[in-house]
Design goal:
Blueprint (H helix, E strand, L loop, with lengths): L8 H21 L8 H5 L6 H13 L3 H17 L13 E11 L6 H11 L3 E5 L3 H11 L5 E5 L7 E5 L3 E4 L10 E6 L2 E8 L9 H17 L4 E6 L7 H7 L4 E2 H4 L21 E5 L3 E9 L8 E9 L3
Parallel strand pairs: 1-2, 7-8
Antiparallel strand pairs: 1-12, 2-4, 3-4, 5-6, 6-7, 8-10, 9-10, 11-12
Length: about 325
Amino acid sequence: MNRRPGRGPGAWCAGLLLAGVSVAVGCRTADTDGVTPVPQLLAFLPWMPAPAVLALLCALLARWWTGLVWGVAVLGLLAWHLEPYGEVGEPGGPPVAALRVLTSNVEFGRGAPALVPVLRDRRPDVVFVEECESGCRAALQREFATVYPHRRAVEADGSAGSLILSRFPLKPAPEVPGSMGMPGAVADVRGHAVRLQLAHPAPPLPGQVDLWHRELGRLRAFAAGTRTPTLLAGDFNASQDHAAFRRILDTGLTDAARLTGHDRTPSWPSRTASVLGVQIDHVLLSADFSATSARFLHVPGTDHRALVVDLVLHRRP
């Protein structure tokens, strides 16, 4: 007896794959992060064309025409959402200063020894270090006391410690409250005030999605409230496929990696980032900055790639 089209294991396989992908794509289209496991799935949206294509092949082999239409629609939405988010423009004023910025999550301080030669080689002007516990702070102080004489820190152990190092003089600025340290400062960049803010909200673990949303919301409130040239950098535990992160971009900040053509370059997990990963480490810029380059660097000992960007500060017109 001939099997009816659309029946059998091929159709079931296609349906299950498309259902899973459709949940994530539907939430992305609806501009919401949903509930667990949607935020976790959204992080890997750039990789979802693979199961969608597999589902399309299964539907074709099973002669499941509804599944074929469904698969084509899902792939079309994925192609749309994989485009860089938001609009970008060029600063209107003349350039007044160039600076290099680096951010690195050193994973409970374990990557701090390997970060030292990276800083010596890349020579950034401002450094944001997440998960920098007491040993990390001591190592960076010992190695770079004269190179980076200015610093702001949240002194805590484990993942809660964070540090900003700067060649430029720093003035205190309020921290953004969170479960992990997010220090702030105002840098004097060759006579121009620049607001520096480290970002390290809680990750969207099951049971912590509400906390993740709240802390990203606090970063959005900070970004919306600042009026000076601003750099917001660190481990956001979010990508451009998360609605909560896009709300931060909607305040007028731009991702430096996007400006330099690296908007989909993965930064985590570093061990598989060249094959499979997600970009959750960012340097966000106010409209006063342009970006000329961005590089993601392997740092042994940590599960995050470091991000170093070259920026130009422009005078406001």
